[in-house]
Amino acid sequence: MTSVSVKDLRLSFGQVTVLDQLNLDIQEGEFLVLLGSSGCGKSTLLNCIAGLLDITDGQIFINGRNVTWDEPKDRGIGMVFQSYALYPQMTVEKNLSFGLKVAKMPQGEIDKRVARAAEILQIGPLLKRKPSELSGGQRQRVAIGRALVRDVDVFLFDEPLSNLDAKLRSELRVEIKRLHQSLKNTMIYVTHDQIEALTLADRIAIMKGGVIQQLADPNTIYNAPKNMFVAGFIGSPSMNFLRGEIAADAAGRPAVVAGGVTFSLDGYHAGETLVPGRKVVLGVRPEHVKVDEPGGTGEVHEATVDIEEPMGADNLLWLKHAGHTMAVRTAGSRRFSPGTRVRLTFDMTLASLFDAESEERI
Amino acid sequence: MSDRGHLKKTAHLAEVPASWESGPRGARPRRLLSTRTIVVYGTLFVAAAYYLLPLYVMIVTSLKGMPEIRLGNIFSPPLEITFEPWVKAWSSACTGLNCDGLSRGFWNSVMITVPSTAISIAIASINGYALSNWRFKGADIFFTILIVGAFIPYQVMLYPIVIVLREIGLYGSLSGLVIVHTIFGMPILTLLFRNYFAGLPEELFKAARVDGAGFWGIYLKIMVPMSLPIFVVAMILQVTGIWNDFLFGVVFTRPEYYPMTVQLNNIVNSVQGVKEYNVNMAATILTGAVPLLVYFVSGRLFVRGIAAGAVKG
Fold this sequence. Notes:
heterodimer, A: Rossmann fold, CATH 2.40.50.140, 2 domains, six-stranded mixed sheet, 20 strands, B: MetI-like fold
């Protein structure tokens, strides 16, 4: 069943149109991540769903109900903000119960819900404290608790972890995932952090310029990006792009010639026939290139190590190969000194091929 | 024996650490009488004296009797301290026909200042809140008009306001003056509150909306409790401004409602009889005492609020 549905949404401020003809269906219990760089309209879209921004055109449905003109409180949503947005003059307990008090809920029910949220998020000992006496992680827990007590169907997260330091971020990320697994609510989560998107999401919607570029599960997004923007945005370091054109290799099968070197497309599933001479971009992720591995199938390319970046778990090599600079990931135990000649084999089953003109996947 | 040797060795090390390079080490020495300190403290002293000297003369003169004042030593402390001028200034100095001193003007000023301050702050804070958080259609135009109002000289508006007040039957009354003060406080106070509220995190406002609080709920339960400093700033601005006002007080009220400042003027500028400098000084200090007290009590909050309102928005 569809939990949240956005139909032909348009939002403009005067002459500037931020979102146009945007459609999005989110299933019940789904964890959807809106991913994009700042200014891509992802937070704007979330605010539209929450009812904090009045939309220009289109409709929004939550649980099958048309909420387009409803106030935020009547939409059955809870929201968590980047800056926590806790009421500074109230204790944690008052922060949690504020919305319920406004809704004139009986005190007994309020106490029950606050106690339940405090137990789930393990903030029981903090209930009597003011937000200023809490650490960043604790504050964000309280902010999640404030959405929790409302007992809503849909949770909206607006970059909830961006204000935390790296260690806390990864801890709370796991907790949000655990929360989703136990509550099974629909969650919409806005972030610019691809790690959060890949780890948390059931589906990711990558946005750019107010347009959803690709909406798919993390695996598809990572391995079969729909266009060059998605391919370049996801993955760190980003995908290697080799510009060239379609040709036939020695055996007459389709290949890409880039920088005078031929890359056989053996194993690549193209969605359309590859006409020789077509200008294309071959995309290869750093971990899909093998370095100096014996017995590999397919053709072998020679390259020179330019820079080595050891990262502990793995070792990133920047190689010079036929005029390109290419990033390649190897095991952390393997070391290469600059200037070394290495032999590369490419895994074409995991590569991506884009049209040079439209930048769409072929 | 060994202990003593050890102690001796460490003491020796503290004096001249063998492993350290010679040259500067530790905190940089500061000379007590450098050019910098002399200039800084000298300037501060001159500025302080410049402002404090008149106050000193006023206090000293107000505590002297008239014969002593006639000697002409205005800087010398009183030989014989008397509080007579203070009592006279408060309760029996003559202004026109009345001879009941400044006390009448004091209570008039209280009755003008308290409602004007309260009403103008209440309205301006709601204005500022609406302008910064509820972006209604035409908000910018409305705000611009309000700010332009702040730059029109008061003198231009005096006569039209007199006519307006006369037409609605409030000319010469205390409530008429309260209304005028409230209106004239509106532009600057609205600007102050708007900028302060604009500086508060917008997400707080959004969170309160998701929690279901409405226009008044957010204002009273979220915004006001967070905005004590700016309320204090507004209060100080209004109390001092309205208390010190002379022009509106003399134009829009009848003599029995004259505020303290107008009465002070009438006492000091009376052309008949002897100039009682000591009474004049005492009356002036009494009139200025209220704003002074407000500053002393809430000065720290004032600075904090001004800084918070000024930097953001």
